[in-house]
Design goal:
The protein has about 120 residues and is mainly alpha-helical. The chain has helices at about 10-25, 30-45, 55-70. It has a domain at about 15-70. It contains three helices and no strands.
Length: about 120
C-alpha cells in the first residue's frame, strides 16, 4: 500500500467530507452517504490516483444528486403506490378483459416472428 493510503490524516478528512455531504443531502440515510464516499475513495485508490477530498466530494455530490432526483415522488395521499401485494391488489382484475370476436371476422393479429437477419443488415 502507498503511504498516502494508510495515512492517519485520511480518516478525519473522510469523516469531515461525510459530515458535509450528510448536511447537504439530509434526505438520504447517513450510511448511504458514508458508503458512497468510501466507494469513491476505494475507486480512486484502485485506479492508482491519490484521493483528493475536493474531487471525492464533487463526485459523491453528483451521485447523491442522482439518487435524490431518481427517487419516486411521494403520493399526495401518503399511501404506497399500488402493487401486486398492496391494499388495492384485490380491486385489480386477475386477467385482462377479453373481447368477443364476431363470427366470420378475423381475430386479433398475432405478432410477426422476428426477422432472421442480424440487426443492421
Amino acid at each position: 500500500m502507498e503511504r498516502w493510503e494508510m495515512s492517519p490524516s485520511v480518516v478525519p478528512t473522510r469523516d469531515d467530507l461525510v459530515a458535509r455531504l450528510r448536511a447537504r443531502f439530509a434526505g438520504i440515510p447517513a450510511e448511504h452517504v458514508r458508503r458512497c464516499v468510501d466507494d469513491l475513495w476505494r475507486c480512486c485508490t484502485h485506479l492508482g490516483m491519490r484521493p483528493d477530498a475536493r474531487t471525492i466530494e464533487r463526485l459523491a455530490a453528483s451521485r447523491l444528486t442522482g439518487v435524490v432526483r431518481g427517487a419516486r415522488p411521494p403520493r399526495p395521499d401518503g399511501e404506497r403506490a399500488p402493487g401486486p401485494h398492496g391494499p388495492a391488489a384485490a380491486a385489480l382484475p386477475s386477467a385482462p378483459p377479453t373481447t368477443a370476436v364476431p363470427p366470420g371476422t378475423a381475430g386479433p393479429r398475432t405478432a410477426r416472428a422476428a426477422a432472421s437477419t442480424p440487426i443492421g443488415m
